[in-house]
Amino acid sequence: MAAKKKTTKLDFKVGESVVYPSHGVGRIVSVDDEEIAGAKLELYVILFEKEKMTLRVPTAKSQAVGMRKLSSIEIIEKALKTLKGRARVKRTMWSRRAQEYEAKINSGDLIAIAEVVRDLFRSDRQPEQSYSERQLYEQALDRMAREIAAGKKLDEASAVAEVEAILEAGATKAEKEKDEKEKEQAAAEAEAAA
Length: 194
What we know:
This protein is an alpha+beta fold and 194 residues long.
C-alpha cells in the first residue's frame, strides 16, 4: 500500500515573485520535499538572481519569517509619496540611527524602506554622505527599486530613475522654500533696521 502524500495549501506558487525581509525580491523556482535531520520538510526554493543566491524556506515557516507577496500598486504609490515628504533625521548618534535604518531595511516593509531612502538621500547641493550612510542608502534604494520594478513590471534601472527623480524634485522644492524663507527673513531684518 502506497503512502498517501498529504497536500497542504501553499501560500505562494512556483514562478511567483515574493519578498523575503532580509534579502528583498526573489522568485520561487520550485517547491521541494527534502529530508533534513530525519524530518521530511516541504520547502520553497527561492532564487535571488541579483545576488546569485538560492534560499530554501520551509513552507510552514514562510509566514513566521515574514515572507510576503509583492506590494500592491497602492502600497507602491504610498511608498513613492513617502519619498516626497520631508526627511526626518533624528538627532541621535549615527550608530543608533544606523541600527534603526538597518532594522527598517530588513523589515521588508516597503514604506519603512522608503523612509530610509528619503532620510538618507543627498542631492548634489547638499553635503556629501559618509561611507556608511552611502552604503545604507544604496542598500535601501536597491531593495525599494527591485520591489517597485517587480510590482510595476519595469526594469530595475527605470525604477531607480523614478525614485531618484522624485527625491531630486523634493530636494529642489525644499531648497526653494529655504531660499524664500531666508529672503523673507533678510527683508524683515532690513525693515527692522531701517
